[in-house]
Structure formats: structure tokens, C-alpha cells
Amino acid sequence: MTKTVLTAEQWKLAESPDPVVLEVRNLTKRFPVGGLFRSKQVHALTDVSFAIRRGEVLAVVGESGSGKSTAARLIARLMEPTSGEIIFRGQNVLQTEKRGASLSYRSGVQMIFQDPFGSMNPTHSVAHHIMRPLQIHHKVERRSDLLPRVHELLATVGLNPPADIANKYPHELSGGQRQRVAIARALAVDPEIVLADEPISMLDVSIRIGVLNLMAKLKKEIGIGYLYITHDIASARYFADRIMVLYAGQMMEGADSDELIGNPAHPYTKLLLSAVPNPEVALGQREVVARGEPPSLIDPPPGCPFAARCPQVKDVCRKVMPDVQTIAPNHWVRCHLYGEGTGGTAA
Amino acid sequence: MASAPVPTSLSPQSSASSAAEPLLDVQNLSVEYQTLRGPVQAVSNVSFSIGQGEVFGLAGESGSGKSTIAHAIMRILHSPAVITGGNVLFDGDDVLEMDMEGLEAFRWRDISMVFQSAMNALNPVLTVGEQIIDVIQRHQPKTTKQQAKDRAAELLDIVGIDGKRVDDYPHQLSGGMRQRVVIAVALALKPQLMIMDEPTTALDVVVQKDIMQQIEYLKKELDFSILFITHDLSLMVEFSDRIGVMYAGEIVEMTAAHELFNKPMHPYTQGLMASFPALVGPKETLTGIPGSPPNMLEPPSGCRFHPRCPKAIAQCSLQQPTLREVEPGHFVACHLY
Ligand SMILES: Nc1ncnc2c1ncn2[C@@H]1O[C@H](COP(=O)(O)OP(=O)(O)OP(=O)(O)O)[C@@H](O)[C@H]1O
Ligand SMILES: Nc1ncnc2c1ncn2[C@@H]1O[C@H](COP(=O)(O)OP(=O)(O)O)[C@@H](O)[C@H]1O
Ligand code: SF4
Ligand code: SF4
Ligand SMILES: [Mg+2]
Ligand SMILES: [Mg+2]
Q1: Which of A121, A302, B16, B141 is buried most, with the most CB atoms less than 10 Å from its CB?
Q2: ABC transporter domain: which residues (chain B) (predicted)?
Q3: How far apart are CA B334 and CA B337, in angstroms?
Q4: Mutation pick for ligand 1 pocket among A27, A28, A30, A31 (CB with most ligand atoms within 8 Å)
């Protein structure tokens, strides 16, 4: 049905010695909707492919509804993809673990959610929240090692003094502290990949950067790789090695963070960047290059999903979805303005 | 995209530091929530004014008291909130002294408000046109239904929605369009001041940009003032003439937007500035602010920021600093100045 639109090779950092830990190929999710026969489909995610190396951060940016959380939930195996492959430590896990994720996958790929409160049980102490995964995944030898390990993890995420924090309940913690507990809980099972879905967007602005700095420290010291999902492209630049832009469930552009922000190629990426508040440039002085709102994802028409808003739209855009074009080292884009102009994947 | 010289609209001349009588003058406002666990001093002794045509921004983290101030000005605070002191003068009249009749005329006609998460505030069983017509007819009973409907379509056009959609229900519109409808409602009676409490927080940057540009344009055309509330300091600096920064119920710094951006003086403002990664320029490791905002049931003694302040001195935990003009037009509440 679909053709590979992007190989992991096009994604890999040219000279990075680090091994690829997680790779997804043509990940696709459709949700049936509509009347009695559920005959219509929401195309939430279409043919998304990428790889994450050890200790590397890939940011996924895009507006609300672009499919970011869907991608994370599929990789966390909270739901099954319509098609596509997930390859973890070389294993095609949708094939080898058909009945759901194995214990080793679930400890290797952890998820942190946007709302740190929603992911905690108000009747259990912090210690309990971290002991559970330690026990389930057999991460300590003896019972007597449990509490010391909890304290060690709390100290790692900057929650001091750990013995005090361990005895608290979720409502006794601030949002930032709760998010740190969520990170400690994820760390408890020695993950290689952390899927972080807007981990700071619900925190007070003054404590957001502290949580990002913590995640950066764990990347450097433990070698954790992240899929960092965010609305905030400036925070992606701060934290991520590479950025991928999603629009209407499709990959539009990807590059090293500085390259993507410094030399955006796709008209949608340019629009996104032009809309970020910038105190040094007063409002109204900059042209907004496109207006309008994202398209409906229910049985979308063929062609480029950005065509309805794109200031540079051509006839071919409404018929053919553009293929991936590599335009610079580690920088690819899907847009008919680049390459031969007619190449593409007919939908 | 790259940094440009500071544009004229941010320069001091245009920052309407109202030499004339201010349109809105908030003096020593204090508000308390009388909760079961004790009184929460949500707003303490806050003073600021807004001139004709000026955009005044209130910045600060969640819980710092921004919405409480907005609700106090509109007189829509409900129990357990109690205004424990101060005055709110609009065009010289004290809003806090108005009776119900006075308030009825004052709200929407003189000051209107766009609420936080307003896009969910529309009535789902009325068309967007009916919601606008409702406001117009309630305040201008002589307007005929047809006149009000024409005006509603015109208002939708003004905020960038096709006037033909006047018969649409809210669920037929996207979040961004619903937010525009709410702004159209707020504009219906041509108010002199519009309070916007986090008007675009729930929206994507592209939609946010579009709406803010529209508001900027409308403000020039219709010449109203704005009290603009957000926790997004970048957006605030971009959009406001003057800014007050709130921390734990108090204004800790107040000055022109460009001055605040170029020369933040209060350690809290400096910390906030160091909390937002930049899109351009060198990549620096940011530090943010250590600790977290205080529990307002037991606010810290002295300067409320002292437990988190990297520059605190002995005096800070003992004595409360007052907001003083430390440079012309630049007010700071901090013992360092
Ligand atoms: N269970 C579901 N049934 C039907 N449609 C769904 C379902 N879950 C998600 N969708 C749709 O899939 C698309 C992508 O949703 P997703 O939650 O991945 O977006 P997102 O990029 O995470 O957005 P946000 O920034 O708002 O979190 C949206 O159009 C959404 O409405
Ligand atoms: N209904 C209420 N009852 C008790 N406390 C409240 C209520 N509403 C707000 N507060 C408290 O008042 C303070 C200021 O809140 P608010 O004005 O909503 O802040 P902001 O708009 O800046 O986020 C906070 O400490 C908040 O917890
Ligand atoms: S493919 Fe066409 S419509 Fe899509 S972004 Fe490129 S130019 Fe615009
Ligand atoms: S008064 Fe003291 S504690 Fe408060 S901001 Fe100034 S230096 Fe910091
Ligand atoms: Mg999401
Ligand atoms: Mg508020």
C-alpha cells in the first residue's frame, strides 16, 4: 500500500558512532470514525520513519492534532499501529511480540506524560510509585535494597533530601517535583529510550528549564535517547539534536536542530518559525507567510496536506504527495519546490 | 527572523506613559480568598494605571494573581474572594463603589473581557450570531433584531471570520475561530478597555500569531486600551507598551516593555528571562529559577521571592521591599536598589 518514503539512513547522523536503539518505519495509524458503519477514517499518522541513537534527542514539533502523541502512544505500544514497523535493539517488535509489549520492551522504552498529576495515584507515596516498577522489573536483588535505590533515584533527579520526598504524597509536591518523580520512575527500569510527550508544557515557566536540564543531564550521563514531543520549537532547539516537523500526520522536514531553524526549507516550517513570539521584533512588522488552519484528517484528498495554506502551491501539489529530498547533509524535506519537482508518491 | 534593531513601536515615545488622566487607575488593590484552610492573599497592594490606547501587560506565573486582578476590575469576583482594600478608578469613577445598575452599564460597554480558555465559554446551543446579538440587545435595547444581526456579521468580518458563518454553532468552528468569536463579542459594544486573560494560551503559535496581529490592527482602528495577561514573557514584550511583573500577588517590577526586555532589574524578572530558550543567537545553558512558587497560604516573610533568590541578602527575609521608581519610569521592589 505504501512505499518507503524515508530510510533510516537518511536520518542517521553522518559520523555518529552511537548505535541506533529505536527505529520506526512507515508508522501509520488510522482511526475509524463516522456513522453506523464507521466508514470514514481519521488519518492521524501516515508513513512516519525515523531512528534514534543512543544518547540522542529527536524532537517532534507540529501543531495540535498533527499526530505527535499518536506517534508516542504507538511506540509505547499503548495502541497498535495500522501499519508500519517498530525496531528496538534490532528486533522487529510488532512481529516478535504480537500479543503486546514484552517486559523487556516496556522497561527499555519508557514514557513521560504531559500531566504529571494524572499519571500518579494520589493515595500512594512517592516511594511506592518508584518501588513498584523496581519490583515488577526485578531491578533489585533484595527487598532491603529497594528503599536505598528509591533514594538514589530521587537524588539523581534532584529531589532532596530524598528520604523526605519519598514519604510525601503527590498532592504535597509542586508540578515540577511531580514531573521529576515521573522521571525517576521512568529511570527506575533502566530505559534506553524515553518518550517525553510535552513534559514541561504544564509546568510553571520558571521551573520548565530545570526539568529540561535534568533530562539533558540523563542523556549525557546515562546515554538515554529521547523522543521529545513539543509545541515549543525554541525548547526543541535547546534540548534536541535533531528536529522533525509533522503536519497533518505526515513528516514534512527534518534536520539537525540548528540547521532546521537556521535554514528552514519547507513552507510550513517557515510559517511555524515566523509565528514564534520574538521580543526583538514587534508584532505586525513581520509578514505572516500563510494563514488559515490545519486541514481535516478525515479521508483527506491526495497531495500535499499543506496545499490549502501554502503561499507557493503549484498544481502538482494538489495531486501528488512529494517524496523525500535530501537538500543538505542530514537535512531532508518533502515539498515539490525541491528536487525534480514532480517526483512523489501518489496517494 | 534574525535580530533586528528595536522597532519604533517599542520605543519610549510610543509607550503612552499617560501624561493625561489614565483611563484605568488601580490603586493599592488587595484581594483575599477566604478558604477553609485559611486566608490566601492572592493580590497584595497592587497599583498600576493604563492610558488611552495603551497596552499594559501583567506577566507572572500561574497563581501569581493575574486573573484575580482582572476579575476584581470587572467586579466579577465571587465568594470566597473578598476585596480587602484599594480603589479601581475607571475614567475617574470608582468601580468598586458602583451599584448593580452602574455595573450593568459599565461591563461590556466600558470594559469587556476575553476570559482564559474563553473558546470553551461559548454557549453550545446558540449560534455564534445569537451570542453576539444577545450582548448587543441587552445593552442597546432599541437595536432591532436585523440591525443586531448585521452588526454581528460585521463583527465576525472584523475578527477575520466570514460573516456568512453567523448562523454556525460553536462546534462547527475550530478552537482558533471560537476564540475569534469571543473577541468579536468583547468588541460588540465598542468598549474603551479590553481585558484579555491568556487569550491565546490554548492555541498553536501560528493561530496565536494571526489573532494577535488582528487584535493589534483592531486596536489601531478602534483605539481601545488593553490589559493583556499572559505567562509568556516573549509574547508579552512583543505586544505590550508597559509591563508589570507579578510574583506571589505583588507587582515586583514595572516599566516599558523594551526596557524590561533590555534591562530587567528584579532578580525574579531576570530569572524569568533566563527561563525561555531563544530561537536565534548563541545556545546558552539556561538556569531558570531554583525552587518553586510559594504556597500562598503561608507566603514567605520579607521579600516573597527570597527563598528562591540567588542575590538575597540578610535584610531580605526580614523586611518587605516596596515598589520604588529606581530609574525614570522603571519601578522595582527589591532591596538591591
Ligand atoms: N482515539 C482516536 N479516535 C479518533 N481520532 C483520534 C483518536 N486519537 C487521536 N485522534 C486524531 O488523530 C489526530 C492526531 O492526534 P494527536 O493526539 O496525535 O495529536 P498531537 O499532535 O499530539 O496534538 P496536541 O498537540 O494537541 O497534543 C487528531 O486529528 C486527533 O483528533
Ligand atoms: N476560588 C479560589 N479559592 C481559593 N483560592 C483561589 C481561588 N482562585 C484563585 N485562588 C488563589 O489565588 C491566587 C491567585 O490566583 P489567580 O489570580 O488565578 O492567578 P493567575 O491568574 O496569575 O494564575 C492563587 O494562589 C490561587 O491558588
Ligand atoms: S508541496 Fe506544494 S503545497 Fe506542499 S509545501 Fe511544497 S509547495 Fe507548498
Ligand atoms: S529583595 Fe532580596 S530576596 Fe527579594 S528580590 Fe531583592 S535581593 Fe532578592
Ligand atoms: Mg498531544
Ligand atoms: Mg489566570
Answers
A1: B16
A2: 24-273
A3: 6
A4: A31
Q: Residue with the nearest Cα to atom 25 of ligand 1?
A: A64
The closest alpha carbon to A62, from A169, A185, A197, A162, belongs to A197
Q: Is there an atom of ligand 4 within 6 Å of B180 CB? A: no
Residue with cell 501560528: B206
A261 CA to centre of ligand 3 in angstroms: 19
pTM: 0.86
Are B206 and A272 in contact (CB < 8 Å)?
Answer: yes
Chain B nearest-CA residue for A288: B210
Residue A62 domain-assigned? yes
Q: How far is CA A9 from CA A52, A242, B283, in A?
A: 11, 14, 28
| Structural domain span for residue A34 | 8-120+191-276+288-333
Confidence of residue B118 (pLDDT cuts 50, 70, 90): low
State residue B9's pLDDT score.
Answer: 34
**CATH assignment at residue A216:** 3.40.50.300
Would you place residue A4 in the very low, low, confident or very high pLDDT band (cuts 50, 70, 90)? very low
**What is this model's ipTM?**
0.81
Q: Looking at this protein, which amino acid is placed at residue A201?
A: S
**Contact assignment for B7 to A274 by CB distance below 8 Å:** no
Beta carbons within 8 Å of A145's beta carbon, 6+ residues apart: none
- Please count the structural domains in chain A: 1
**Residues by chain with Cβ below 5 Å of ion ligand 6:** B 67
Q: How many helices (H) and strands (E) does chain A have?
A: 12, 14
CA distance A84 to chain B (A): 29
Mean pLDDT for the stretch of residues A148-165: 92
Q: Show Cβ contacts of residue A42 under 8 Å, excluding neighbours closer than 6 positions.
A: A30, A31, A32, A33, A297, A298
Q: In this structure, is residue A272 part of a structural domain?
A: yes
Q: What is the DSSP letter of B107?
A: B
Q: Which of A109-123, A223-237, B128-142, B252-266 has the lowest mean pLDDT?
A: A109-123
Chain B residues in contact with A177 (beta carbon < 8 A): 292
Whether chain A has a CB inside 8 Å of the CB on B298: the answer is no
Closest CA of chain B from A276, distance in Å: 6
pLDDT band at A15 (very low <50, low <70, confident <90, very high): low
